[in-house]
Amino acid sequence: MTSPTSTDPYAAFREELRQFATEQCPEELKQFVRSNRKITRNEYRIWQEKLFARGWAAPNWPVEHGGTGWDLQQRYLFEEITAQADCPPQYHHGLGHIGPVILHFGTEAQKARFLPRILDGSEWWCQGYSEPGAGSDLASLKTSARLDGDHYVLNGQKIWTSHAQEADMMYTLVRTSNEGRKQAGISLLLVPMNTPGIEVRPIPTIDHWHHVNEVFLNEVRVPRENLVGAEGEGWKCAKFLLDRERLSPATVPRLARLAEQVGELLMARRRASAASPSFHVLLERLYLAQAGVKGAREMLLSAIQEEMQGTLAASKSSALKLFCSELSQQIIGIALDIAGPAHTARLVASSGVDTQQGVDLQRELVHTYLFYRSRTIAGGTSEVQKNVIARDLFGA
Amino acid sequence: MPFHAEPMFPGDLYDTTLRVASAAPAGADADASGATWRQFLNLGWQAVLVAESSGGAGATLGDIAAMAEAAGRHALVAPLVERCAVVPALLSGIAGNPAAQALLGDIASGEASVCPVLALGEPAPKGRLQGARVVLDGCLHGADLTEPVTHLLALVELDGKKALVLLPRAALTGAARSYTGIDASHITDVDLTGLALPESAVLLHGDPVAPLVDHANALGALLSCAQMVGAIGAMIEQTIEYLSTREQFGVALATFQALRHKVVEMYVAYENVRGMVRQQVCVLDDVAPALPQRELRRELSLVKLYLAVTGRQVAETAIQLHGGIGMSRELPAARLAMHALACTLRWGDRFSQLDRLAADAVLH
Question: Quick one: which of A153, B96, B262, B310 is 20 to 30 A from A298 by CA?
């Protein structure tokens, strides 16, 4: 009988990763990750520079473009070991999203201009997809791009643009035509964020983190050479990106680490006050979450095998996304109940800086709880995932 | 193409079990399934987990899990887990006892068939040693006497310590009450008061009993999970089939989003538990000796806890999605639901797993 655990051809690779994660990730950075504070460009950058120096800047890119050339199994191990060691995740908009699209559809000039700066972390990207009237139904987007000489002139509004406040570049889907199917008139443009006419306004969100923004585009002139692929191929580029990135090897390891942290918090609570009935309620939820992580890990590993063999069904990757996003909410929900009224009532200090308590893990977990409501919304809502899966299950 | 469940451990044992289980009488005729069990004996399935040195096949946990999953797809109530896995595990653990080893050989050859009665969640009968005899007292709860059975291997409180006592079927002459359970399985409670057996009937007594019984229960728990994976997979297939065929308001039920989403939830749960159970079986087969026992036992309890909650949810959803017909014992999906429900409760239910895990967490 074959089994996933009988041999480990990756033993040496694991050891190499473990050593790197232990030695190369600065302790302050690990503490930052452990604190569950919102990771900003600064933390991402420090880690990206370390990875770049080691030649591991892009685990998902081919070697000839500065990637590692790792297979999905190796990428999973990288994610598992770095998550376990509290290294920051990698910033995904450049490496995971627009990078592979430029690699596949971009001109030589675009590759030379953009890829090196994604690798070394010197240029930061955000994604201008959603609009006030186009969320899950993205193809309804209206932001217009009209050609004017060597430039496209953009007018419209993007919304839910995460990291726009710290980004140098935005890859954005715009409407270059109103003819034919609505998908056909969409193009992909790369927009420098310092172009006149761009205004970024933070959206105050329930988590009290500055994560998402509105991006207003008013007569924004973008050089024509920043068009990726042909005009009207934007939808194709976006689909390519979705297909390539449908399996995220990072999700499960980060969930596993979060479940561990929440478990430690629960045990600390029990030491502080005797085991009350509520402790056992939380304990069962924790165990169910831990078991869920165990199952999710197996789902991911088998999906990785199937993806490597080219047999992965859309329903499986959607099932994984659906399950992991809901599981992350269950885990962080336990943290919210442990944090309780004291921390939820003191989420933000009025002075801006709470000198008395410094960085408080439980308070950060309350932020995280609130932020994680978006897990079942962003990247395809749970309801959309269910529609996708149902089509596969019912064969119609 | 509509959903079809893929087996965790495909192979001959899976296929053969599936064939036998699909031909087994079900529902109102389940009583007559003695024939199915004799087929099991003829196929040598009691020998699967018995070591080759004792005349068995010395197969892996993956092999017996394959059988359990296949049996689960047809809600087979025959005591596969009890007699092909739990009893061989118990007897193999009593290495120093020649009677136990001889019985193991008889089990492998099919001459003997032994029903375990391990007092899970029920009181164990009591006993005392008197001269060269063991005298029993109290009720033996939950014996499965439906299929041809030669012996019962019972957990007994003997002079204040746990013991495993072998009772010949013929010796059970006390007052008995029989019951049918939620999944058409049968059990009997038998009064043992006054029953006296030779001392040799005590196969194991004292400290080694508890860990051995715990090990056997753990095996039962894992295989009950494999049965559930089989049952859940089949339940989803049948629910999809029903929703795609049945029409209401002039359209197939399968067109209603509310119903489709419920099926998706069943499916996602299935993918998750299938991966979880498969991994746990592989770990036990491959690397178990290298891992700390406490950690292994903990992982197993996590899996059973999770399956106990999930198996019940899926079973309830399957009944709900079938509407009125879901209440019929004649409906295969309803039988699968009852089987899954019974499996959630056997070999350590949700709360016994939680108690064990919580005790472990508080101790360490």
Answer: B262
